[in-house]
Amino acid sequence: MMKLAWLELNGCSGNIISLLNGSEPGLEYMITEMVDLVYDQSLIPCEGERAMDALFSLLDGEEFILAVEGAIATRDDGKYQIVGRWRGEEITGVDAVSMLGEKAVHVIAVGACASHGGVSAGTPNPAQCVSVQSILNRTVINLPGCPCHPEWFLSTLEYLLNYGEPQLDAMGRPVFLYGITIHQRCERRSYFDQGIFASNLGEPTCMFLMGCKGPITPIDCPIRKWNDRVSWPVQANTPCIGCAQFGFPDQMEPFITFPPAEAEPGGL
Ligand code: SF4
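^ thats the input. predicted complex w/ iron/sulfur cluster below
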């Protein structure tokens, strides 16, 4: 069975929490039927040197896939981000991503921070956080989202295991997930086409004039939904804030605007 290592770097660990919330399949299926999960800070039962040995034994062993969530802190030689001590040396996030990323069969950047810096690289970015791709001179499969949907990760993992690398767009995102914008499949699209726009939260019409980022955010939230297909932001009456788009959060702000009542609909 293919081995998988999951690094949690500069971020909130929201992507591993999101993965734990998956159900089709769930984490139990992933670690029993899909991959041998050899390391993740939150889930590994051992600690200290033993945990570091489990992680870095991959450098001399069988093939493995590396998943990284969180950005990589580069300021002061990465000393703001110590993953652990191994063989007497402090291992920074830069070290871990560089060593493991060069050896891995595939590298997956899970979530916004790993894919493009995300919240961790938001202004003023005091730890000088960067994406996984900024560290590695190789193909990195980016799964932006804050957090990454568990099925975005698991479907990509399944594709890698069965067919190899999926078709990626210019930003390293799998086309089968990120090929169509939210706006193209939104349940409020007919209101947009008729120029019927909401000016307050709770109105059932299109939230384009409230700053909805669905038109510029390619991902499948309208049909996949979240939390076991319960709902998604537009269904829950909030504009899309573009969390799955590169540049989130800084370039997606403001997340919401309240247009004057007499505002005329704008075109795209
Ligand atoms: S609510 Fe957003 S995603 Fe939906 S149709 Fe309007 S602008 Fe597009």
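The longest helix spans residues 150-163.
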